[in-house]
């Protein structure tokens, strides 16, 4: 894939470079790294190891520098103490332009930017209204039901249910979270359960195939280059057309609102709307699946974490009067009970700290001066300002022994959420950013944490769990997805599970 992208990048865009030449640093601008390759600039070096690339530039240039990446000039601000100051320049930033363009490229829909005139939907409001507040209650309740239907299907004979199963842990998390998440957003077709399952598993295969080329699509390659992935994307979208969704029950507010709001997507036809639903499917799954894997893997691998988490979960179920039973009686914890699980919170945060590699991007609406604590920098219109929080997440000064999983890293001495982290003696306002920041922060972050917790609660209370190989090496992160969010493991880890005799 790299070769295709290289050839494409060189062949198509060399011409543009010849015309425009390279940019020279002007007075007051951050140090500039043009890279040696036309158009791509530093993209290959950045792409092969973003963390090392940025650290090297930080040593060479200081905390603020500019890199040419894929024809764009990207200003990296790398001192975590400065993140809030960067975010306070909101009036100069276009938060959405990059997101809308990227989404259109990857999912193949027309522009959903209201300023382009084809929709009046305020996507931001839709997300806030349907993923947070009251909407979160029902979303989370439905998710818990779906998880239990998948993990403990009713009517499973005892002989079948109490045997050890060996499976790849990533494959397991992928299967369970995809199915439960899909049903929770897009509803259930209760008429023919078997056909329904086959359809979801088919969707899962298509999703994997499409997601595999996602980094290439974001980099700007046309999906036509990837025949199988293209077909997979079209099939996924096909299943999200109105006639398919309208047969389903318990469709989430997020999707049903967007199905029926005539004024918002009015110039979008059914096929086009389905592609915007696909964008939401991707956003809801692509990060959640690896995040679930890392949370489960790190928890099982660490005996102290497993012990603390089991105790917390047992306590919470007991005080909520919930008891997992062999008859498959559903477990239910409400929002308050789910939010009051500091050990699980800390485990999830620590797992995400170690696996997150997102790039937070804003585009400059106009020429302006970025004022930071240690200096001011001139920024040109259409340049990109970027934060790469992995630099902070793996900074040994903020997080001592940064590559080690410490389940209680985010717990204070009272066992509550810890919020004081320091760099160079400064207390940090931003110290944990796997969900982005400021106006573009992930609208699904509360739901995401709740669904991972629900998954962990069920795994702990209903199953016996064992790693096949113990102690097990931590699989490396798949760096080819750096910039997109939570990185999956490069290879899977085998584990064994068995329903408990309850
Ligand atoms: C662990 C799981 C998740 C992680 C790490 C994550 C992370 C992110 C990040 C980094 C962004 C981009 C923010 C930015 O550009 O600054 C984002 C956007 C988004 N996320 Fe999540 N996310 C997760 C789960 C979810 C879930 C479960 C949903 C929905 C059900 C969701 C819905 C969205 C949507 C709709 C956007 C686009 C927002 C916009 O462009 O306005 N995410 N997420
Ligand atoms: C808006 O829709 C029209 C046709 O309905 C199309 O020609 C135009 O390209 C669309 N604009 C954008 C920015 O997608
Ligand atoms: C969509 O609905 C049609 C007609 O009911 C059905 O044949 C098809 O399998 C469905 N497709 C998907 C992907 O759900
Ligand atoms: C959208 O239009 C359809 C048919 O024209 C109508 O049945 C429906 O009630 C409308 N929905 C809203 C939210 O106005
Ligand atoms: C980051 O910026 C803060 C505030 O200007 C400064 O005190 C600190 O020394 C900087 N951090 C590093 C590692 O240079
Ligand atoms: C989106 O809505 C949230 C809360 O409703 C708000 O904090 C945020 O600034 C909004 N973002 C944009 C880009 O309008």
TrEMBL record:
Name recorded for this polypeptide: Cholesterol 7-alpha-monooxygenase
Coiled coil location: none
Keyword set includes Cell inner membrane: no
Enzyme class (EC, first level): oxidoreductase
Pathways involved: Lipid metabolism; bile acid biosynthesis
Reactions catalysed according to its record: cholesterol + reduced [NADPH--hemoprotein reductase] + O2 = 7alpha-hydroxycholesterol + oxidized [NADPH--hemoprotein reductase] + H2O + H(+)
Localization (cell): Endoplasmic reticulum membrane; Microsome membrane
Annotated TM spans: 6-22
Domain of life per record: Eukaryota
Phylogenetic placement of the source organism: Eukaryota, Metazoa, Chordata, Craniata, Vertebrata
Family: Belongs to the cytochrome P450 family.
Organism whose genome encodes this protein: Microtus ochrogaster
EC number from the UniProt entry: 1.14.14.23
Keywords: Cholesterol metabolism, Endoplasmic reticulum, Heme, Iron, Lipid metabolism, Membrane, Metal-binding, Microsome, Monooxygenase, Oxidoreductase, Steroid metabolism, Sterol metabolism, Transmembrane, Transmembrane helix
